[in-house]
Amino acid sequence: MSLNSPHCEDKKLSKFGKLSSVYHDVFTDHKISTVRKRCLQCKYEPATSLKKLLGGFLSGNLLKLQSEIGANHTYRETEKLLASFCTNTRSINNHDRIKHTVEGVGKQIGELHKVASDILAIPTAEKLILNVDGGHINTTEEGKRSFEAMTAIVYRPESLESNSSGNRNTLTSKHCAASALNDGQQQMISNTIIAALKEGLSPKTAVTALCDGAENCWKIVDALVPLSASVERVLDWFHITMKLKNISVPEDQKERLEKVKWHLWRGNCEKALQRLKELRVLCSEKTANKILKFSNYIQNNSSKIVNYNQRQEQGLPFTSNLAESTVESLINQRCKGQQHMRWSREGLDPLLQLRAAITSNDWNQNWKTAVLNTTKN
């Protein structure tokens, strides 16, 4: 704070009473007094409120806590949880304030993605695995039931570890990207590229991409082609099996359907398509239409169907179950747990940016900057 008036030479400021402001910390609220000063000649008075001095009335740790809990629970649930933590209800923790905090910090996290100056210091990765998937969200938009939000997860193969029993894989390091915007996938592509760069993407990196076969997923994968040594596209085995499960055939035809799966597992599209064609004429019209739809799905993605059996034996990635768990953690758990919830794209996107940062390796590193930038706006 200046001790002199900028308008009067050599005129020191005089005390002019006190200003009381409320300051909200993690568990408590405080009244803090600051000394007001004024130039007796020109009446100049510098800002002395906490908002001007500190950028806001909330501590950084409270904003962090509101962001983390609000990212994982509904805003009303977060209000109740914080009331339980503090042993009393505080107006600063009402659901509207928490929503405002989550959106503000989430937007700042999105802005930090654009600069990401720490990327240059990351060691080059020899190989990377990219999983891209989407989830449908109930929308507030008039005349529409839902929209698709996209997610991606990038990691090094050596980051994948099995637990002691060997039946569950975990990632020791990963970076996630997400977007709910209807911008021709510009933000999603940008965030995915940055996530890959943070995992060590370089012109020497071989990328294996696993997707469910949707064009919008492959479009995101295509964006990494100019930045890498090679990109291998693999149609995710998880989605193939899920689509097969949705085809209900008569009991006496189940063996034929299993044979389709057997051929696909070994990467033989032609024989699988032939089996599907034979099966179609033996089923009801409704089932035949499902088989035709699945046949088109296989035909359209035939160039991405590999010998999954061989890849499993060689320890190579062939399924995006980790991407499914990422969609579940980033989108479904928070946004689809209650069917009455409706979202706009603009309202959901900051939340997704925040959840992606928390799920990645970035949150502990970036939260202070994001919170500080939030208080400035």
Q: Indicate the radius of gyration in whole angstroms.
A: 27 Å
Using DSSP, what is the number of strands? Answer: 9
**Bulk shape:** elongated
The H/E string reads: EEHHHHEEEEEHEHEHHHHHHHH
Q: What proportion of the residues form beta strands (DSSP E)? A: 15-25%
Strand order of the largest sheet: 7-4-3-8-9
How many DSSP H or I helices?
A: 14
Tell me about the biggest sheet?
5 strands, mixed
Give the CA-CA distance, first to last residue.
21 Å
Q: Let me know the average pLDDT.
A: 85
Q: Give the fraction of residues assigned to helices.
A: 40-55%
The stretches of 5 or more residues where confidence is low (pLDDT under 50) are none
- By secondary-structure content and strand pairing, the structural class works out as alpha/beta
Explain the overall architecture.
The chain is an alpha/beta fold and 377 residues long. Among the domains are: 1-57, no CATH class; 237-319. It contains 14 helices and 9 strands. The strands form 3 sheets. Strands 7-4-3-8-9 form a 5-stranded mixed beta sheet. The model has no long low-confidence stretch (mean pLDDT 85).
Please summarize what this structure is.
This protein is of the alpha/beta class and 377 residues long.
